[in-house]
Amino acid sequence: MALLRHTTGEIKERKALTVNPAKTCQPVGAMYAALGVKGCFPHSHGSQGCCAYHRSALTRHYKEPVVAGTSSFTEGSSVFGGQSNLITAIDNIFTLYDPEVIAIHTTCLSETIGDDLMQISQKAKDDGKVPAGKHIVYASTPSYVGTHVTGYANMVKGILKGFVTKTGTPNGKINIIPGFCEPSDMAEMRRLADMMGIDITMVPDTNGVLNGPMTGHYEMYPNAGATPAEIAGMGDAKATIGLGRWATADGVNFLDAEFKVPGHVMGLPIGLKATDRYVDLLRKLSGKTVPDSINFERGQVVDLLSDYSQYFYGKKVAMAGDPDQVLALVEFCITLGMIPAYTVTGTAGKYFDERMTELLKDVPYDCKFKCGGEADMYLLHQWIKNDPVDLLIGNTYLKYVARDEDIPLVRHGFPILDRVGHQYFPSVGYSGAMRLMEKFLEALLDRLDRDAPETRFELQL
């Protein structure tokens, strides 16, 4: 914390140094995606330390025990390869924990060695280590490239490759592939489709897995998530919607290329405009009409926006997070009349720059943004040092900048380690838009009350 006070406003070019990164590593995202499949046991093909970190990152964020296996590499495995360890692990997991699916992801070590998951998985099947009716899926997720969003995308594609088939008989469903978001967000995406009477298949679906009830009985495999049979049927669907370009485009394109299921990739439905686009695409693909109940919720968002726009207008915001998340938040902030002054994301991609340029073209401020390895919270802090903002939006690690610069913080994204609610209350959809406006407004008005002199400390609303 004290080190932040030595952060200077002098910005120098960095090509090989990241400080306080706005990301974490691929296996974290892969493990999270695997938990969205019913009866799935994630497995980390690497050392015990790697698996412990990935599990703890998810456990601390969701306040739920995340179970996963590890190949437990030793010095010998590091030199000669981890095939023997993985085959033994597969045998032990099916024997002791009896999952429906084992979802294997790699780590830095197994990738550097060059272990071939396809070959090892096939050998495990040939050796009789995979019981009848059970499944193995896998994904390559080296931690030295990409981020947790990349790992999520890779595992989603691995799940689809492992299960999806095409019978030739259309099932009339619409596939929904949600981006890296909360279980509550996935539930809200499904709720909007249900309100329109649309039959969907959502993969992955962590609702009920990482935000389930306390029943007094521990369930290693909650009665939630997409079943292997549901995933298999995605090849017979009418269309696929991917919500979040970085996290879902690979899966959408796979279904389109391999099974001729038309794909549509759009942003996460955070905010008014993005939710409008999601609902409208559901309407077009399904042929259903938008019910009055959804129009009512949309009207509430517009009413709230119009009632309190004077408190949002002109407020400068700095944010850090995943690209799919921050792009949607930038658009929403602009809709509210706020200025997204500074934006960073640790996940690289040319589309980020293109979309940010498009969103900011009419904003009357020299907004700064950056993606990739050097787009870290240190850079964000330096920008703030040069020209302060009114609000911060990002994960728990931004709290240090918030305290050092005395700026209100709205926690959003991954990981959130020191608050609860993100796994239970959505940020997507119209209800999510209202929740975000409430959080933004509360942070701004709390600061207004705190700083108001006695002569102006009165009822603001």
Explain this structure.
This is Nitrogenase molybdenum-iron protein beta chain. Keywords: ATP-binding, Iron, Iron-sulfur, Metal-binding, Nitrogen fixation, Nucleotide-binding, Oxidoreductase. Belongs to the NifD/NifK/NifE/NifN family. The chain is α/β, with parallel strands linked by helices and 461 residues long. The protein has three domains: 175 residues, 3-Layer(aba) Sandwich (Rossmann fold); 138 residues, Rossmann fold, CATH 3.40.50.1980; 110 residues, Rossmann fold, CATH 3.40.50.1980. 45% of the residues lie in helices and 13% in strands. It contains 17 helices and 13 strands. It has a five-stranded parallel sheet with strand order 11-10-9-12-13, sandwiched between helices. α10 links the parallel β7 and β8. α12 runs parallel beside α17. It is globular and about 80 Å long.
Question: Summarize this, please?
Answer:
By secondary structure, this protein is an alpha/beta fold. The protein contains 17 helices and 13 strands.
CATH topology of the largest domain: Rossmann fold
CATH architecture of the largest domain: 3-Layer(aba) Sandwich
Tell me the strand percentage band: 5-15%
CATH class of the largest domain: Alpha Beta
- Rg calculated over all Cα atoms: 23 Å
Mean pLDDT: 95
Unreliable runs: none
SSE order, one letter for each helix or strand: HEHEHHEHHEHEHEHEHEHHEHEHEHEHEH
**Share of helical residues:** 40-55%
Strand segment count: 13
Helices, by number, come to 17
Taking the sheet with the most strands, its summary is: 5 strands, parallel
Q: Numbering strands along the chain, what is their spatial order in the largest sheet?
A: 11-10-9-12-13
Number of domains: 3
